[in-house]
Amino acid sequence: MEAGLAGRERPPARDELVPRPLAVAITGGIGAGKSEALAAFARHGAAVISSDEIVHRLLAEDDGVRDAIRERLGDEALGGDGRPDRSAIARIVFADRDALAWLESLLHPLVVREYMAWRDELASSEDPPAVAATEVPLLYEVGGEKRFDAVVAITAPRDLRSARASVPLEARERRLLPDSEKVERADFSYVNDRGLSDLDAFVEGVMGELEARA
């Protein structure tokens, strides 16, 4: 387990700090345990939001997203209810790099808009939380780290991630940065190869450092 500021100066004095909430990104590979880390941040007082949950909502509710997917990927990308079907979409795009790149270019700006609006709403509340944590799988791949005050990288051995994942890793990870680079660039990192209590203890320590900055 590793925790701490990676190659950055110690937190500045309170009057020099960024406004609350301090924005934290949680990133890592498939099956690393990002969602469990996000849940741990919530348990320790952070406001949390998941990019994957935003995508779920966009697919279920956004007619513009539905129409764009139908036009590009065809009716086979839709379920019986006429909404985009995640499993069907995955089968299509992970066999076609151009389709995957198109889908990410469609969804990414919408997801960013959603979590930035959420953060603005938190900041304008009467008693904003000290920390707002967002799960962002493709953080470094799209240059999204610039939108955050700190980054937490969650990693795990490949065989363990493969066992946790519901789909083969190979097709989905070709375009991803290696874990070693994510860890080097992140402010905090954790190898998630033990129980939830260890992950929770790591997050508790990170929250302590972040709250001192917020």
What would your notes on this structure say?
With 214 residues, the protein is of the alpha/beta class. It is built from nine helices and five strands. A five-stranded parallel beta sheet has the order 2-3-1-4-5, sandwiched between helices. Helix 1 (34-43) crosses helix 9 (196-213) and helix 2 packs across helix 5. The longest helix has 27 residues, at 97-123. It starts with 21 loop residues before the first strand and ends with a helix.
Domain count: the total is 2
CATH superfamily of the largest domain: P-loop containing nucleotide triphosphate hydrolases
Shape: globular
Measured by DSSP, the beta-strand proportion falls in 5-15%
Cα end-to-end separation: 24 Å
Helical proportion? Answer: 40-55%
Which fold name corresponds to the CATH topology of the largest domain?
Rossmann fold
Mean pLDDT: 87
Short précis:
The protein is α/β, with parallel strands linked by helices. Helix 3 runs antiparallel to helix 5.
Write the layout of secondary structure elements.
Blueprint: E1 22-28, H1 34-43, E2 47-50, H2 51-61, H3 63-73, H4 86-93, H5 97-123, E3 131-135, E4 150-155, H6 158-164, H7 170-173, H8 179-185, E5 188-191, H9 196-213
Parallel strand pairs: 1-3, 1-4, 2-3, 4-5
Helix pairs in contact: 1-9, 2-5, 3-5
